[in-house]
Amino acid sequence: MTVTSHNHVVLDGVNGHQHLMRLPALEVRQGDGRILYSFAVDGKRLPRFAAVSRIRRDGDAQVEGYQRPEVLSHIASIRRYLESEAPMIPNALVVAFDKRVQFEPLPGAPATSYARPGTLIIPASDDLLDEDKPGWIVDGQQRSAAIRDARIDSFPVVVTAFITDSDEDQRSQFILVNSAKPLPKGLIYELLPATSGALPVALQARRFPAILLRRLNCEIRSPLYRKIRTPTTPEGIVKDNSILKMLENSLSDGALYSFRNRATGAGDEEEMMSVLTSFWAAVSEVFADAWDKPPRQSRLMHGVGIVSLGFIMDAIFDRYSRKRAPETGDFAHDLAELRTVCRWTSGFWDFGPGAQRKWNELQNTTRDIQLLTNYLLCEYKARVWSNPLPSNEG
């Protein structure tokens, strides 16, 4: 036996040199004889002993493996996060080992009835084929792939492992790990405004809209005060995701874009809040009969209405911003011209010959949102766009 580093040794094997990684680990006994091992390893070295078993069918059409194919966009997002300043992945990867992996308890070390420290001995080599590796990644496929591809020298990760030669046992653990209910997106969005540090791209893009959503929902001056349904405001009637879509659309190329810092993705919150509170106050005034009702009674408070009206806000702002910033009265003046064509709570939307839709048939789908948005924008352009701006005196 020849020691080659602090965390692995080399043994002469039957087929030449077989590398054995020796990693400090904690053995934990659970339930009736089940044993887990917790250890840390450089994520760049995971492919030396652990492979991904992807779902496939053999020649007899039987399912083999258990892991889903890599999601490239997700991997790219994690990789960018890993390449940012001070990244952290606190949740452990889960690996299933076959019985070639051994555990040596540490003599004389403190232990309990359910845990003892020691060393995990893992066969490892850059030359091993996937089917010859002793480990399979049960949970953490995207994270391990992102670490593998990231332009970083190393990135230690925590691994929880179990030893079994049973494919059925591996699959059952995969199902248990991946069938747990994920963290609700609404809770994530509520946490984003108070989050610091780098985030995956998808969450980073929603951080600033989440800040505006929080202010709309928590400031008394807002017409949407406590009307947005979030985990901490369950009594709200408008879904948080509908508000986020409306905000993201406007931040992308609408009214709020004018106050955005393209370099940081943030912007002038106060100016944005002024536009938002003015517009939605006007909506609540012009469509008072449809305001503050649950979505099943009013499509105004439904996702399809919220997102579509967001585009009307952008159009009205664009009309006024050439001379001045629109105020609540300006938004109300223009919205009033649409009152006779809107069917928020009853009747039929008239989208053209043979295209009538009952008021509550519109759903929060991309197709229906686009249909309603195009209709309202066409009506707005035909009825209002070329008219003189109302006076803002007084």
Break the fold down into its secondary structure elements and pairings.
Layout lengths: L1 E2 L4 E6 L2 E15 L3 E9 L7 E2 L4 E2 L5 E2 L7 H11 L10 E5 L4 E4 L9 E10 L10 E5 L1 H9 L6 E8 L3 H13 L5 H7 L9 H18 L9 E2 L8 E2 H14 L15 H18 L16 H19 L6 H8 L12 E3 L5 E3 L7 H18 L11
Parallel strand pairs: 5-11, 8-12, 13-14
Antiparallel strand pairs: 1-2, 2-3, 3-4, 3-10, 4-12, 6-7, 8-11, 9-10, 15-16
Structural class by secondary-structure content: alpha+beta
Q: Give the helix proportion (percent range).
A: 25-40%
Total count of domains: 2
Shape verdict: elongated
Q: Biggest sheet, in brief? A: 10 strands, mixed
| Number of H- or I-type helical stretches | 10
Mean pLDDT: 85
What is the element string, with H for helices and E for strands?
EEEEEEEHEEEEHEHHHEEHHHHEEH
What report would you give on this structure?
With 394 residues, this protein is α+β, with helices and mostly antiparallel strands. It folds into 2 domains: 2-179, no CATH class; 185-383, no CATH class. 34% of the residues lie in helices and 20% in strands. The protein has 10 helices and 16 strands. The chain has helices at residues 72-82, 141-149, 167-179, 185-191, 201-218, 240-253, 269-286, 303-321, 328-335, 366-383, and strands at 2-3, 8-13, 16-30, 34-42, 50-51, 56-57, 63-64, 93-97, 102-105, 115-124, 135-139, 156-163, 228-229, 238-239, 348-350, 356-358. Strands 1, 2, 3, 4, 5, 8, 9, 10, 11 and 12 form a 10-stranded mixed beta sheet that branches. Strands 6-7 form a two-stranded antiparallel ribbon. Strand 3 (16-30) and strand 4 (34-42) form a beta hairpin. Helix 6 (240-253) packs parallel to helix 8 (303-321). The protein is elongated. The termini are far apart. Residues 1-16 have low confidence and may be disordered.
